[in-house]
Amino acid sequence: MTERIEGHGGELALAALRAHGVREMFTLSGGHVFPLYDAAHGSDFPIYDVRHEQSAVFAAEAVAKLQRRPGLAVLTAGPGVTNGISGMTSAFFNASPVLVLGGRAPAFRWGSGSLQEMDHLPLVAPVTKHAETVFSTDDIPRAVDAALTAALTPHRGPAFLDFPLETVFSISEAELPTVTGVGPVEPDPEEVGRAALLIAAAQRPVIIAGSDVYAGDAVAALREAAEALQVPVFTNGMGRGSLPPEHPLAFAKARRAALSGADVVVVVGTPLDFRLSFGDFGDAKVVHIVDAPSQRAGHVQPAAAPAGDLRLILSALADHSGDRADHTDWIADLRVAEDAARARDAAEMAAETDPIRPARIYGELRRVLARDAVTIGDGGDFVSYAGRYLEPAQPGTWLDPGPYGCLGTGMGYAMGARVSHPDRQICVLMGDGAAGFSLMDVESLVRQKLPVVIVVGNNGIWGLEKHPMRAMYGYDVAADLQPELRYDTVVSALGGAGETVAKAADLGPALQRAFDSGVPYLVNVLTDPTDAYPRSSNLA
C-alpha cells in the first residue's frame, strides 16, 4: 500500500530521503532551504554545517564512499550551488552517490531579478547523473526518489535537485514512492568466460583493483578470484586494503616489475586513465572489468571487457573450472622485488635528516595508526608519499580526491569520516598548499565536537609545480608559499590545538599527543623543500 504524507516541501523531501537510508545533512545555512532545516530539526535528523559549501559536498561524498549509501548536501541558491560544483565534479569522477539539494529563486518572479536568481541546471548537468528543477510541491518525493535511484545505479554518481522558493515552502500532500532498490547489472557470460580463459592461461597475470571494488561491495569476491586463480593483486583508490598487506597475493611496491613483466593485466573497477598509463602495458593483454557498459574504455581495445555487477563477475572468475597455468614462480619473483622495495622504503621512513623528509612522517604514522584508521589525502606532492608509504590494512579506510585531483577535500572528508566512524582514528594528510582551501572548516569540526588529526607537510612551496617548472624552464613563478607558516596556531585560534615539529626525533611524540587529544589537532611538520616525489608528467 502506498503511503501518503502531508507537509511542506522540506518535510516531503526528508521523508523520501529517509526511505533511501539517508541519515544526515551537510549544509551551509541559507534562507532558500529553511524548510529542509525545519523538517530535520523537527524530527531529530542530524544537521552538520560548514564554512564553505564545497566542504558540505565533500562531507556528503565521504559518507557515500565510506558507507556505500547516499550522502546528502543541502546548498542555498546561486553561490551556494556554484560553490559546491567542485565537490559535485569530484563525486562524478569518483562515482559517489551524493545528492545535492539546492534552493532556487521563486519561479513566479523568474526573470525579475530575485536574490541569487540563476538557472543552476546548465552548470551542474554535465557533472551529475540526474539534474532537475522541481516545480510542484507534491512532486518532491517522486523527484527525490528518481534522483537517488539514478545516483545509486551503476555507474554511480551524484544527482542534483533544486526547488523554487514557493515549491519548498508550500504545503501539499503526496505519495511516498516505494523504494525497490537497484538490482545488479547482469554481465554477459560469454565475455566473463573469455576473461576467465585469458587470466587462467596467462603465465604472468596481474590484477589491479580500484575504488568500484569497494563501492560495489565486491571485496570478498575479489579475494576469492585472486586466490582461486593465484594472481597477484595491486590496488588503487578505495580498492586499497581489499587484501591486507600480509596476504600472500597482496603487493604494493613491485608495481613497475609487475606491469613491465605481465602478459595479462586485469584492471577491475577503475578507469584506464593517467594513473594506469592510459591502459598501455606494452605487449600485455588487458582485461578491463567494469560495473557498467558506459565505463568500458574507448581509447584502448581490451582483450576482454566484462561489464556488470563486480561481485558476479569476480565470483564467476573464481569458479572457473578450466585449466590454469602455474603462477608460483611469477609470484615468487614479484615477492623478491616487493621485499627489496620494502627494505628501501624502511630506510627512507627511518631517515634522521633535518629538515625532515616526508618519508619519515609516514614511518612515524605507521606506528600510531590503528588498522581501522581512516586516512584522508588532501594534497599533491605530500600526499603522493602517502600513497607510497601507507598501506591500508582494511577496505574502506582510504580517501583521496580521486582522478579529478581537486584540492580542498580534507576538512569535508574529515567531517564525513568522523560522522561515519565515531570511534576510529581519523587522520588527514594535507599539503601546506591544500591547507589554504579548507582549513577554516576546522572551526566547524571544533564547534560540532568532531575530533580529527591533521598532519601538514609544510615545505613552503607548491611542490608539484615548483620542481617540474624549474626542470622545464630553469626558473619557477607562482610556486612559493610562506616558509614555516604556523598552520597549527590557526587551528588553535579556531578552538583546536596543535604544534610545529622541526626535528625528526620529535615526530612520534607529537603524533601520539595529537591522537590522544580528543580535539581537532594539527601537527605542522616542517619538511625539506628540496625533497620532491619522483614522477613523470600526468598532464598528457
Automatic annotation (TrEMBL):
InterPro entries to which the protein is assigned, alphabetical: DHS-like_NAD/FAD-binding_dom, THDP-binding, Thiamin_PyroP_enz_cen_dom, Thiamin_PyroP_enz_TPP-bd_dom, TPP_enz, TPP_enzyme_TPP-bd
Enzyme class: transferase
Residues covered by the Thiamine pyrophosphate enzyme central domain: 194-317
Listed EC numbers: 2.2.1.6
Pfam families tied to this protein: TPP_enzyme_C, TPP_enzyme_M, TPP_enzyme_N
Recorded GO MF terms: acetolactate synthase activity
Keywords: Thiamine pyrophosphate, Transferase
Coiled-coil zones: none
Residue intervals of the Thiamine pyrophosphate enzyme TPP-binding domain: 378-525
Cofactor(s) the record lists: thiamine diphosphate
Signal peptide residues on this chain, from the entry's feature table: none
Domain Thiamine pyrophosphate enzyme N-terminal TPP-binding: 9-121
PANTHER family named in the record: 2-HYDROXYACYL-COA LYASE 2, THIAMINE PYROPHOSPHATE ENZYMES
The family this protein is said to belong to: Belongs to the TPP enzyme family.
Protein name listed in UniProt: Acetolactate synthase
